[in-house]
Structures are given as structure tokens and as C-alpha cells.
Amino acid sequence: MRNKSTGAHRCLTFAEVLVSEVAAIDGAPQPAANPDLTEAAAYGEIHTRATGNELSALCLSGGGIRSATFSLGVMQGLATRGLLDKFSYLSTVSGAGTSAMACRTPSRA
Q: What percent of the chain has pLDDT over 90?
């Protein structure tokens, strides 16, 4: 992230990335940079936003070709039933990530 006054770049904190990601999922405006935001405050802000808002995540683990095959089957089954696009967030690692790219759904943006 570029500092507007100095033009220098700085890394975002985990808390800033977390709040920004949830805002993107909600379709809300991106929050202003706040390097002093604590993780506890970020979680509090997320829980406040989530009240009355049903967010869900599909999380698939890695493990190479076996997890890729399993994950592909799970996502295809969900897509066939019209359920894959009901998830707000998809989290994958390793082999499951390969399958997620094959089954990705259109962006809600």
C-alpha cells in the first residue's frame, strides 16, 4: 500500500487485510488504511458487520492429486445442485486449489 503523503510503500497488517477482505465480500467500500488496527478490533468489526448477514465458507484442504480429485467432486456436486455459488468465500490449499480454479464461479462484483 502506498502512503499518500510520502509516496512510500508499506506492508498491510493482517488485521487490515482481514477487514478489507470482508468488506470486499460484502460489497462494502474499502476501509481506510489503519496500521494501528489490532486483530481483536478487526474481529470485532467483522462480527458487527456479520450480524444479520449470512456469510459462509467452503474450505478444502490440500494433499496432492487425491485432494484435488476429492475437492473437484465436492465442488461439482455442489454446482450441480446450485449450491456452489451460495458460499461467500472459498479457501483452498495445494491440490484443492487446482480444483478450485477448474470450478470457479463468476464473480459477484
A: 5
